[in-house]
Amino acid sequence: MNDERFKQILKKSFTTAAICFSMGIFFFGISFSLSGSYIKAVYIVKIWIAFFILGLLTVARLLFGETNWAKSKPFYIKNLIFMPLYLAVALILVMDIVADMGVTPNLPLIVFCIAIFVVTFTIRQLIEYFIQKAKTDKMNDALIEFQKEHTWDEEE
Question: What backbone torsions phi and psi does residue 2 show, to the nearest 5 degrees?
């Protein structure tokens, strides 16, 4: 892999992590305001650290996607392989923040967090599927058009 490709992977990973960080802060803000709590500065630092780790995991996932084995597999297989790591980071973050607030993490809370993660992960997979399908359809249409043009040239 060349340096330019690695720079693209880093840029894509940390751009994605930055967007997710912003959305995470937004949802944490809504959750805290609905519960009547306030977000301590240390929580934002913990969230930043968690999303930095998620960015590093995304770099690893994209680098893994460049291997010959992974190139022959559908995109969702690569995402499913890394899903437990993403889930672990998210659960550790939420449970740490909840414990700092004086609430004992319990099974219903953990199940609720896992459910939110799975729903979010599934929605993201569906969006990525439709994006990949659109790209594939566009490439297939271009290939069919190219074949028609060259078949027409050979007939003349």
Answer: -90, 170
Asked whether 17 and 51 are in contact (CB, 8 A), the reply is yes
Question: pLDDT (tens digit, 9 = 90+) per residue, 22-74?
Answer: 888 888 888 888 888 778 889 889 988 998 898 899 889 888 888 888 888 88
Distance, in Å, from the CA atom of 81 to the CA atom of 84, rounded to the nearest integer, reads 7
DSSP label of 2: -
Q: How far is the first Cα of the chain from the last one, in angstroms, to the nearest whole number?
A: 44
For the entire predicted model, the pTM comes to: 0.77
CA atoms of 44 and 96, how far apart (whole Å): 12
pLDDT per residue as tens digits for the range 107-131: 998 899 899 999 988 998 899 889 9
Q: Return all residues near 77 (Cβ < 8 A) that are at least 6 apart.
A: 70
Residue 51 near residue 25, CB atoms below 8 Å = no
Q: Is the pLDDT of residue 156 over 60?
A: no
- C-beta atoms surrounding 73 within 10 Å: 13
The answer to whether 88 and 50 have CB atoms below 8 angstroms apart is: no
In DSSP notation, 97-116 reads HHHHTTPPP-HHHHHHHHHH
